[in-house]
Write a structure and sequence with these properties.
Strand content: over 45%
Structural class: mainly beta
Radius of gyration: 18 Å
Number of helices: 1
Helix content: under 10%
Number of domains: 1
Order of helices and strands: EEHEEEEEEEE
Largest sheet: 4 strands, antiparallel
Strand order of the largest sheet: 4-3-10-7
Shape: elongated
């Protein structure tokens, strides 16, 4: 038998801190992933709500979601922890969003395509 718990506010045991459940629902990260873009298949290290990744060429990746977003206007934050001033700083940028995936370009400071070994993505938005 399934159970349903319906509450408007969650409060800690001492009743000193509380939060509306709508804040929890609307304010959580829906998708995150860390991956190695230098691997042949953009190997995922760890993730949440990610079904797979793909490597479409040098510095060109796709992250596919397990559960879709409501629309393609969600917020995406990209990161790469590999670049240094001497090796050419790397950055990631939006290459196109759909409700079911996020495409990413990896670039160096000269804006040339470059693979990123320590890449990450966080997406926030309304679930479908």
């Amino acid at each position: 038998m399934a159970s349903i718990l319906r509450v408007n506010t969650l409060t800690d045991a001492s009743s000193g801190n509380s939060i509306a459940t709508s804040v929890l629902h609307n304010g959580i990260t829906r998708t995150w992933v860390s991956f190695d873009g230098t691997a042949a298949d953009a190997t995922i290290g760890d993730s949440f709500n990610v079904s797979s990744s793909d490597d479409d060429g040098t510095g060109d990746y796709g992250i596919n979601f397990t559960s879709n977003f409501n629309n393609a206007d969600y917020s995406s934050t990209f990161g790469d922890g590999e670049g240094t001033a001497s090796s050419g700083l790397r950055f990631l940028m939006d290459a196109g969003s759909t409700t079911s995936s996020q495409e990413i370009y990896g670039r160096n400071v000269s804006n040339s395509a470059q693979d990123c070994a320590a890449a990450s993505l966080n997406c926030n938005g309304d679930p479908a």
